[in-house]
């Protein structure tokens, strides 16, 4: 039954052969390991230990309902950036009381929804947003807990598109002006100041920027305390990187130890918003080689997954580990792994030395974060199915989209008379 148990078990210690999954469910197919997700989350939770706080998983990394449900069961809170993500958390069984609402552009409707269900806190990113939340809360006879997302102007040393804590980024409130904005928040009705929040970027592989940002946030907490503004929690965002190739990010435990050291002697709880570090290495994208197309200049392996399934290589020049679970007896050559989408930027990997034959199944590793959630229907391609492997059981947790799903809700214009 298991044709490639070695590879399957090497991946995450799970007993399901990837080739069987590809055969049963077709490709492209996202496969996640329940154990890998649980272990990664528990690393945060255990490191937090008895310190008061909440690990709010960043839903944008992987919002599959089964993933959210699993994390809710393990005691996660959630970091959301839209009404849709809030709905997903609720549908998956997560408690709105454990939700923090981030994002620079919260709409009237989204704020109202969040107040109706009672989210834990709004991470506010501007003064006009404060005014909007205050007005909506007042009209609903509710009080909104708020923290300001401050921008500490720290270089996260990551890809510029996923760096968020520099003053030229759209995110957060300049930490230098934050005390005045807190005073403004204090003057508005139906707001309750509970925290300070920051998130400086994603895929950080060095601890220093995190700790620098935390120092600046704690200095702000002191300034606020001196003004009589009490801060109950500090939210240090997400951002811890993972190994895609040869990066060596700090271990979750080591990172947490350093963070908690800085909080020693302070009466603040710790909130965090990790996404990638919980799900990235727990997921694989399986794809089948459709055609081999050697040319004079390059060898192309055209596979059935594309940039619409995983846009990270095209968008961030992200490197993805590609493994042939074939097996192929062809001799190894250098291949560009490309998809069927009509874009030159539609590639998954460049210049990989692989033995390939048409029909082989490739595993793209570490695709559990920002993989499916960033997928689209570009070229009217249906989105992949998602599977969670739990020991030797594989659960289909999202069906492959059908052509009917693709055109659902659309309508033709009435026929014109001319
Ligand atoms: C506000 C906020 N919180 C949390 C995250 C999650 O970050 P990561 O997946 O890098 O842990 C992000 C994404 O960068 C974010 O923008
Ligand atoms: N989507 C990004 C990270 C998230 C950025 C969100 N602030 C990635 O795939 O690396």
Automatic annotation (TrEMBL):
Q: What positions does the entry give for pyridoxal 5'-phosphate binding?
A: 239, 273-276, 370
Q: Which residues form the active site?
A: 342
Tell me the function of this protein: Specifically catalyzes the decarboxylation of meso-diaminopimelate (meso-DAP) to L-lysine.
Note whether Amino-acid biosynthesis occurs among the keywords.
yes
Can you name this protein? Answer: Diaminopimelate decarboxylase
Q: Which NCBIfam families match?
A: lysA
Q: From what superkingdom does this record's organism come?
A: Bacteria
Q: Which reaction does it catalyse?
A: meso-2,6-diaminopimelate + H(+) = L-lysine + CO2
- Gene3D superfamilies associated with the record: Alanine racemase, Lyase, Ornithine Decarboxylase, Chain A, domain 1
Binding site residues for substrate: 276, 312, 316, 343, 370
Annotated GO biological processes are: lysine biosynthetic process via diaminopimelate
Location of N6-(pyridoxal phosphate)lysine modifications:
60
**What subunit structure does UniProt give?**
Homodimer.
Q: Which PROSITE patterns match?
A: ODR_DC_2_1, ODR_DC_2_2
Hey, which pathway is this one from? Answer: Amino-acid biosynthesis; L-lysine biosynthesis via DAP pathway; L-lysine from DL-2,6-diaminopimelate: step 1/1
* Family label: Belongs to the Orn/Lys/Arg decarboxylase class-II family. LysA subfamily.
EC number(s): the record gives 4.1.1.20
Q: What is the lineage of its organism?
A: Bacteria, Pseudomonadati, Pseudomonadota, Gammaproteobacteria, Cellvibrionales
Annotated Orn/DAP/Arg decarboxylase 2 N-terminal domain ranges read 36-280
**Any Pfam family matching the protein:** Orn_DAP_Arg_deC
Organism of derivation: Marinibactrum halimedae
